[in-house]
C-alpha cells in the first residue's frame, strides 16, 4: 500500500525537484587583474544575481587548471588589466569566461547567464552616459570539452550506471534466486564455507563488469573521441574499486531480500533511479534542494563520476581524487560489514 | 548394538522468547530410517537445520556422525547429505551438469564420478535423459534425482526435509523404495514427513508437538501404546 500510494508522490517530487536545469548558486572564481570601479561593479552584479556565488578570488600566478581540478568552481571570470581605462580610452574591453565543460549543459548555461548579465550592465551604463560607445567583449572558452560534446558527460555516467546495474543488481538477483530455489540451503549444508559460496557467485560478475567497463571506455575513446588525459591504470583501478563497491552492495541487498522479485525491486528503486537522478550524471547537483543535495552524498556513482571525469577529461592524478576514492572504499567496507552481520543473523 | 550416528542431548533453540526446540533428547542409529513427525511449526525443520549445521543451537549437546556440531561443523557437513523441502537441484542445468557440480563441491574425482554417475542413471532408468535440463523433468523424477545426488558422496546420514511433497502415492512408494535401498547400504536416513502412511515405513518415528518430542518408538509400539489402529490416530492423539 505504501508503495502504491507513496511511490508516485516520491517520484513526482524527486523528478520535479531534480530535473531542474536552472542554475542557482554555482561557484565561480574571479580573476580581476585591474581592480577598478567597473570590474567591481560587474563582479557584484554577477554575485548578486543569485546564480553565482564567489568560490575563490584568484591571484596572479594561480593556475586556472588547478582551480578547476579541485572540482568546486565551475567557471572563471577574468578581467584583463586596466579594464576601466581601456573601456574609456578604446571604447571596448575584454572579459573572458572560462567554463568547466566536463559538464557541457551547465557550462553552456553558466556562460550564457554571465554574458547576459555583463551585456545588461553595458546597456544600463549607456543609458546614463549616451555619448560613450562603450563595449565589453565577452570571450567564452570551454575548458576540457571545447566542442561541448555531451558524450563527454554521458560516457562516465553510463559507465557508472551499467556497472551499478550489472554488478549490484545481477549479484543480488542471482544470490536471492538460490535462496528462492532452495539450492542455497544445500550449498550451506555442504562443506563449502559461506565465503566460498559468495566468492563463487561474485567472481563471474566481477569479470563481466570489468569487461563492460573496458568496452565502454574503448567505445568512448575510439568511437566518440572522449580523451583519457590521465593515467589509464588509475582509471581501471578506480573502476575496479567501484565494481567491488557495487558487488558488495549487491550482496547486501541479497541478504535483505527474501526472493528475486524483492531483490529486483530494491535494485531498481535503490540503484537505478538514484544513479540517474542524484549522481549528477544528468542533472547538476548544485541545483537540487538541500535535502536532495545531502542525499546525493550517499550515492556511490556520484563519487565515481567525479573520479572518472577528473581522470579522463581533466587528466588529474590520484592527488585530486583521493577523497572520492576513500569514500568509495569506505562504502565498500560498510556494505561488506553489514552483509556479514545480516548473514549471521539469518543463520541463527 | 549399532553405532549411534546422531546424539542429541538437551537441545534448545530459541528465537527471541519463542522456544522452537525445548530440550530435545534422542539418538539415531546407523542404517536406520528415522521418521521425524510433527504438525507445521512444531519445530521439525528447525531441529533438522541444527543437525545439518545450517543453524546454531542455543544450548545443548549435538553430535552428528560422531562430530560435535559446534566445533567440527565442517566435518559434520562432509558426512551428511541434505535434500531441502524446496527442490534442490539447479533447474537450468542438465542432470549431468548437476552431478558434476555437486561432485565438485564434495571433492569427488572425475573418474569416480563417471563410474557412479552411470550406476545412478541406470538405477533411476534415466540414462537417455542425461543431458536434459532439470526443468523439463517431471516432479517425481526430480525428487528421486535430488535424493540420489544428496547421497552421491556416500554420506553417513542423509537428511530429507519433506521429500515427497506434491506427488502421487505411486511415485511416493517408488521414492521409498529408494530410501530402503539407501538404508540397506548402511546410510542412515533422517526424514521429516506429513504423510502418516510414510511414517509406517520408518524403523522408528518421533512425534513433535510445540517444540517437544512427545513420543519416540517403532510404529508398532506407538500404535500399541496409544491403542490406535494406524499412525494417523497416534498422531492425532498426540498433536490433538
Keywords, separated by commas or semicolons:
heterodimer; A: 348 residues; abc type-2 transporter like fold; five-stranded mixed β-sheet; 13 helices; 67% helix; B: 240 residues; Rossmann fold; 2 domains; six-stranded mixed β-sheet
Which shape of chain A, going by the Cα principal axes?
Answer: elongated
Mean pLDDT of chain A: 82
Count of DSSP-assigned helices of chain A: 13
Radius of gyration of chain A: 25 Å
Please describe what this structure looks like:
The complex is a heterodimer of chains A (348) and B (240). Chain A has 348 residues and is of the alpha/beta class. Chain A folds into 2 domains: 21-143, abc type-2 transporter like domain (abc type-2 transporter like fold); 151-347, no CATH class. Chain A is 67% helix and 10% strand. Chain A contains 13 helices and 5 strands. In chain A, strands 2-1-3-4-5 form a 5-stranded mixed beta sheet. In chain A, strand 4 (92-100), helix 5 (104-128) and strand 5 form a beta-alpha-beta unit. In chain A, helix 6 runs antiparallel to helix 12 (300-314). Chain A is elongated and about 90 Å long. The mean pLDDT of chain A is 82. Chain B is α/β, with parallel strands linked by helices and 240 residues long. Chain B has 2 domains: 1-79 and 157-162 and 175-180 and 190-240, P-loop containing nucleotide triphosphate hydrolases (Rossmann fold, 3-Layer(aba) Sandwich), CATH 3.40.50; 85-154, no CATH class. Chain B is built from 9 helices and 10 strands. Chain B has helices at residues 44-51, 73-78, 95-105, 110-124, 139-150, 169-184, 196-201, 219-225, 231-239; strands at 4-15, 18-29, 33-38, 59-64, 67-68, 80-83, 157-161, 188-193, 204-209, 212-217. Chain B has a 6-stranded mixed beta sheet, with helices on both faces. In chain B, strand 7 (157-161), helix 6 and strand 8 (188-193) form a beta-alpha-beta unit. Chain B is globular, with a radius of gyration of 18 Å. The chains are: A alpha/beta (348), B alpha/beta (240). The interface between A and B is medium-sized, with 15 and 25 residues.
